[in-house]
Amino acid sequence: MQAFEFYSPTKILFGASTEAQAGQQITAYGGSRVVVVYGGASAVKSGLLERVLRSLDEAGLAYECVGGVQPNPKLSLAYEGVKRALSFGADFVLAIGGGSVIDTAKAIADGAATPEFDLWDDFWLKKHPLPGSLPVGVVLTIPAAGSESSDSAVLTNDETLEKRGLSSPFHRPRFAIMNPELTFTLPRYQVTCGIVDIMMHTMDRYFNPVTTNELTDEIAEGLLRNTIRNGRRVMEHPGDYQAISELMWAGSLSHNGLTGLGNKPDFAPHQLGHELSAMFDVAHGASLSAIWDSWAKYCVHTNPARFAQFAENVWGLDPSGKEPVTLAMEGIEAVRQFFRSLQMPICLSQLDCGVQSESTLEDLAYRCTFRNTRTIGSFQVLNYDDILAIYRLANY
Q1: Measured distance CA(148)–CA(138) in Å, rounded
Q2: Within 13 A of 87's CA, how many CA atoms are on the CB side?
Q3: At what angle do helices 268-280 and 284-299 cross, to 10 degrees?
Q4: What is the mean pLDDT of each run of 10 residues along the chain (396 residues)?
Q5: Structure pTM?
Q6: Which of 233, 236, 256, 258 is nearest to 245 (CA)?
Q7: Within 10 A of 121 (CB to CB), how many other CB atoms are there?
Q8: Which of helix, strand or coil describes residue 35?
C-alpha cells in the first residue's frame, strides 16, 4: 500500500422510513434555521417533501425552501439560494434529492458562510481557498453521484457554459439519510445514469499509475462487480429493494474516497464528460458512458496489464492463452456491451447532442484544458491533442 489519508465523517442513516429522522439529526448538529433544497415536482408529488418538513416541524426548526434544481446544477440558482439563506439567517442546509440537489446545497452553504467571497470567481475558479461552509445534511433519492458522502461539488455556469468542480473537506455532509424505497418511482433513465456514475467514480480511481494497492484494488473490483450484478437485477425487476439498496450503498462508497486510497485518481473521463454536459446540457451519466469507450481505447496501451486485470477480476473473462492487450480489449468491450444493455449511449451520435463538427470538437478540447492551461488524467496524462483525439474517436 502507498501512503494515504482517509477522512469520511458523514453519518449514514440507512433503511426504510429514515427520512423521518431529518429534523432530529439537524438538531443534533446544532441547526435551528434550515434552508431546504430540492429539485422538481417529484419531491412534492411523492409526499417526500411534506414528510421531511413535518419532521422539521416536530423538531421545532424554522425553514425556508429553495426548489427547482435541475440536472447539471446551475450557478444562477446557487446564487439565488445564497441570497435567500442570508436573508433567512440560515445555519444549516438540507438537500432532498440526488447529486445535483446536493451539490447545489453545498454551494449555497459555501456562499452563505462566506458572503464576502464570490462563489464562482473565488472558489470554483480556485482563486481563493474555501475558508468554511454551513453544515449540510442530505435525504438521498437517487443512487448515483455519491455526493452525499463526498468532499466534492460540481456547478455549471449557465452564462459561460463552464462546468467546474470544487473539492473541500467542508463539503462532507454531516449526515446522509438513505432510504432505498425513495428510489422506487425513479424513471429507468435516471437509474441507468446512476449505475454508470457509480461505476465511473470507481473506474476513474481504479485506472491510475499505481499497481501495488492490492486491497484498494479489490475493494474497487468488488464494488464494480456488485454494481454490475445489481444493475442488471434492478433493470429486470424495478422496485427490487435488495438490488436498489445495494446500488445506493455502492454509490456512497464509490465517491467517499475508499476505492482510491493510496493512488492518484485519473478522472479524465469525468473531465471529458463535463464538457459535453456543460455545452449540450446532457445527463452526466450519459456523457460518461458516451466517452469512456473512446478514452479506454486511446489509453489502453499505456498499461494493458491494468485493463487485463480489470477484464479478469471485474468481468470474469478467461485470460488463458491471451496477451494482456487482447484481454484488455475484451474488458473494454464488456463495458461497452453492458452500457448498451442499459440503453446508455456509447458515442456522440447516441447522445442527445449528436455528431459534432470539427470546430465544435476543438472547442470542447480547448474548454477541457481550461483554455490550454492544464492537462488531465493520471493513468495517461492527456494534453489538448490527446483530448481532441478522444473526442474524435467518440464522434460517430
Answers
A1: 6
A2: 9
A3: 140
A4: 92 97 98 96 89 98 96 96 98 97 98 98 96 98 94 96 96 98 93 97 97 96 98 95 97 96 96 97 96 98 98 98 98 98 97 96 98 97 98 98
A5: 0.95
A6: 233
A7: 11
A8: strand
